[in-house]
């Protein structure tokens, strides 16, 4: 679903004038339909995550959906926490990551590597603070059954062309079966990474239990926000 200027501005919590100004400056990706700007949900969320811009909880919702999105903590349990990933640049690091992370039997790992590298060529997935979120641009082609998020601590920081120019020490590798689950998982990941307590945990290479506890805490807060939003919607 393509978003209008009004929708995108509401999700980002800014005025339509500010949003339009970002587009005209070439800062925010958009395309024109009948002389009106339209935005892709995934592109918008990735852009906001890279710039640490909070987004409305509404962006987690698929239009008409009433069920809760996949839990990020479950995705971390599926993807695991991995240490001492070798490599000196994005290609060598991602190659080592693809060899290490758990994937369903029969998954074409070389193809996944190609997809991750292709996404990096579109623009770095580094968010700043030494963290990057590599992911396939088109998640549905991988045919996985559920989202997974692999937390990968690098043996040595590597340059990923981050906006803050800091080398990356942690990769959060996201793999999802559908665009909808990709969007929901990415939104939750962005919210978790904005929490002040989480980046220091990752920089310190925290243990799996510590990482999961932080994720579950932030998710509980998101669930409360979602419940309040649904209550307001039902009461309208």
Question: Which short descriptors sum up this protein?
Answer:
single chain, 236 residues, alpha/beta, Multidrug-efflux Transporter Regulator, Chain: A, Domain 2, Mannitol-specific EII, Chain A, 2 domains, five-stranded mixed beta sheet, three-stranded antiparallel beta sheet, 8 strands, globular
Q: In the CATH scheme, what's the topology name of the largest domain?
A: Mannitol-specific EII, Chain A
**What class do helices, strands and sheet pairing give?**
alpha/beta
Order of the strands making up the biggest sheet: 4-7-8-6-5
The CATH level-2 architecture of the largest domain is identified as 3-Layer(aba) Sandwich
Mean pLDDT, all residues: 86
Strand content: 15-25%
Rg, Cα atoms, Å: 18 Å
In the CATH hierarchy, what is the superfamily of the largest domain? Mannitol-specific EII, Chain A
Summarize the structure.
This protein has 236 residues and is α/β, with parallel strands linked by helices.
Could you explain the architecture of this structure?
With 236 residues, the chain is α/β, with parallel strands linked by helices. The protein has helices spanning 5-12, 16-24, 41-50, 72-79, 90-100, 109-122, 179-194, 198-203, 208-235, and strands spanning 2-3, 31-33, 36-40, 81-85, 126-128, 131-132, 148-158, 168-175. Strand 5 (126-128) and strand 6 (131-132) form a beta hairpin. Helix 4 (72-79) runs antiparallel to helix 9. The longest helix is centred in the C-terminal third of the chain and has 28 residues, at 208-235.
């Amino acid at each position: 679903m393509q978003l209008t200027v009004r929708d995108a501005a509401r999700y980002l919590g800014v005025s339509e004038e500010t949003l339009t100004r970002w587009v005209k400056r070439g800062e925010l990706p958009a395309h024109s339909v009948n002389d009106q700007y339209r935005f892709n949900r995934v592109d918008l969320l990735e852009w906001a995550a890279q710039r640490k811009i909070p987004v409305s909880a509404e962006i987690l919702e698929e239009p008409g959906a009433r069920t809760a999105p996949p839990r990020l903590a479950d995705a971390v349990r599926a993807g695991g926490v991995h240490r001492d990933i070798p490599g000196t640049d994005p290609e060598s690091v991602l190659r080592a990551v693809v060899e290490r992370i758990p994937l369903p039997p029969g998954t074409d790992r070389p193809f996944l590597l190609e997809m991750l590298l292709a996404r990096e060529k579109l623009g770095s997935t580094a968010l700043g603070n030494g963290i990057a979120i590599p992911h396939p641009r088109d998640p549905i082609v991988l045919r996985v059954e559920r989202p997974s998020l692999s937390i990968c601590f690098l043996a040595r920081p590597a340059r990923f062309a981050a906006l803050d120019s800091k080398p990356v020490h942690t990769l959060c590798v996201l793999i999802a079966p559908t665009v909808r689950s990709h969007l929901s998982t990415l939104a939750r990941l962005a919210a978790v990474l904005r929490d002040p307590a989480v980046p220091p945990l990752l920089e310190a290479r925290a243990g799996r239990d510590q990482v999961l506890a932080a994720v579950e805490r932030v998710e509980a807060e998101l669930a409360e926000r979602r419940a309040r939003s649904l209550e307001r919607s039902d009461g309208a």
